What we know:
globular; pyruvate-formate lyase- activating enzyme; Rossmann fold; CATH 2.40.50.140; alpha/beta
Amino acid sequence: MTRDSARAGRYHIETWGCQMNVLDSDKLAGTLESHGYRRAASASEADVILLNTCSIREKAAEKIFSELGRLKPLKKRTPELLLGVCGCVAQQEGERIFARAPHVDFVLGPRAGATLDEVLTRHRAGDRTVRGTLDVEYRSDSIDFPFEKIRRAAAGTGRAFVTIIEGCNHRCTYCVVPRTRGKEICREMGQIMEEVRSLAERGVLEVEFLGQTVNAYRDSNGRTLGDLLAETARLDGIERIRFTTSHPAQMTDALMDAMAAARPKVCPYLHLPVQSGSSAVLRAMRRGYDREAYLAKIEGLRRRIPGISFGTDIIVGFPGETEREFGETLSLLQEVEFDTVYSFAYSARPGTAAHGMDDPPLELKLERVNRLQALQNGIQARRNQGWVGRAVEVLVEGPSKKRPSRWSGRSADYRIVNFSGRATPGRISAVRITGASAFSLRGESVLS
Length: 448
């Protein structure tokens, strides 16, 4: 198979990680399409392949190198194929990616995405010196990306992500994000609102504001996330507002008041990572709050927004975690009754303060993860069962992945709802709940 550099051809992007990475991939796709490239059905049909990576977990990083190994024969058969590694693993590993995978053409960090435009321009002009391009500078490329160029893969679902802040100024002992994403940098609120208005004009009903520490947002005029929520809530066309991921230390009374004032458009769901239920472990993690302070945030939000649902992240088996301290995490789950929990066995990341600490045995960490998940699954099953017989409004995302004859979407409090009957993707549909599991609700469209 030969490839013609005079034509743009097709591209394929593989994405790992969080919502921020998903949106970054939409930006990379927008850059490719501005050069005339079109999405390929698979990697084997592509002229450009980008791996947009995540380095939060050790296994996630290794998956990238495994995928690069699988792509090596394809690159060998078609040397003109352009292969790039982008995102957080690119930032973390840098030149080492070329050493481990010499068939990679270029490496771009998450704050250096604008270099892709230059790489494509040079490549299409026949310049083969793009091979070996490395750019891991901390710039504002992701923040400053023209929103008109974003190829929003999820816009047809009625939802859209909007970056408002990038990077993190916290120094949690386990976290690699400050090294991979850099220090916090915020967009101007006027620019954000221009993007949100354009999304509303395109029929988007739900916007989700993104940032590694989204509730630390503050523009050059001192306007905060609370101000942004209030302004967005006044906008016609936008029916739902979400934001993620919040840090408990920045969940202030003023922000809680702003959330309540912007109801009902601000959704009654908040992802608020706690990481541990033990104050001692939280101190070792350098999280900036203890168990009591976290519970006070939960109580404050529930007082202002009755019925609000919560999601969280928990790291199990942090260095030094005792059985008693793990038990405090289990008791926190029972006290708060989260609606979703993302739990992970601690994974040491290079360059973090916790790297090299006395890491508990993997078997112990996995045993604790299993116990935690069993407890949480029971909590979720019971809480979801309470929705049976009630009607909820669901933003329809499309056909259910497991049963394409049914529809799937999210309720305002972020529950997955699979249902039968009439519906339109990207629109809100009333659904009566007829069944529930620990992970989703089942129902029937009220219109059927």
